[in-house]
Q: What sequence folds into this?
């Protein structure tokens, strides 16, 4: 990663590693799944040029950042990581947080846990609140777009990503090609969608009627009220 330097820091009981570039107010960039900190390699130079100290950590569980000692990877744990990283990297001033995909969920959680530590919140790919969860249950098009999330929870996932010589590679290739064909050609089994929708209609209604806690709006001075 051109001009970026590596860093390590202890935060919330996790040893974080990643990349940083530039000087100025902290801009914390949180990657998604199955990406990693290198996701931000094209954006970091532009953010640094704009006057930020851009930091892109590998989130917990992504080497070389350490794994969770207690096996906790829930959104709340990720949110505490966000707050811990800001406290460690910018103890005297709030930070701008930019979260993509799974990193967006971490960013939302961090903002709810410590709104005064985040001056601006930017997210991409995952909306705030229950909309995405509702779409997983009721929207056939979204289910097809998110096929990989369901795939990683099936019995096929482990052999598909195995690195065993020859057989592992062949099996991985065959399964991936099969899934690409099934999903890409629109052959995702409709009964699966119908069953999910039937099971999820009542839950989706409950989620839609739930008013999420508001994300605090930063004040013009850069800190939240």
A:
């Amino acid at each position: 990663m051109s001009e970026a330097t590596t860093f390590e820091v202890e935060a919330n009981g996790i040893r974080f590693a990643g990349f940083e570039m530039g000087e100025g107010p902290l801009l914390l960039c949180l990657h998604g799944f199955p990406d990693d900190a290198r996701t931000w390699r094209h954006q970091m130079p532009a953010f640094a040029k704009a006057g930020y100290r851009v930091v892109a950590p590998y989130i917990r569980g992504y080497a070389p950042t350490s794994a969770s000692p207690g096996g906790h990877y829930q959104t709340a744990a990720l949110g505490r990581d966000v707050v811990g990283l800001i406290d460690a990297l910018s103890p005297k001033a709030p930070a701008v947080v930019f979260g993509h995909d799974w990193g967006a969920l971490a960013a939302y959680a961090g903002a709810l846990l410590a709104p005064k530590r985040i001056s601006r919140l930017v997210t991409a790919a995952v909306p705030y609140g229950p909309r995405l969860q509702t779409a997983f249950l009721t929207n056939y098009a979204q289910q097809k777009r998110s096929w990989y999330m369901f795939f990683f929870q099936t019995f096929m996932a482990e052999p598909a990503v195995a690195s065993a010589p020859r057989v592992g590679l062949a099996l991985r290739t065959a399964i991936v090609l099969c899934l690409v064909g099934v999903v890409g050609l629109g052959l995702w089994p409709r009964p699966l969608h119908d069953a999910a929708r039937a099971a999820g209609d009542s839950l989706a209604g409950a989620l839609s009627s739930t008013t999420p806690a508001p994300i605090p709006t930063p004040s013009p001075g850069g800190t939240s009220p």
Q: What stands out?
A: Residues 202-225 have pLDDT under 50 and may be disordered. The longest strand covers residues 14-21. Residues 131-208 form one domain.
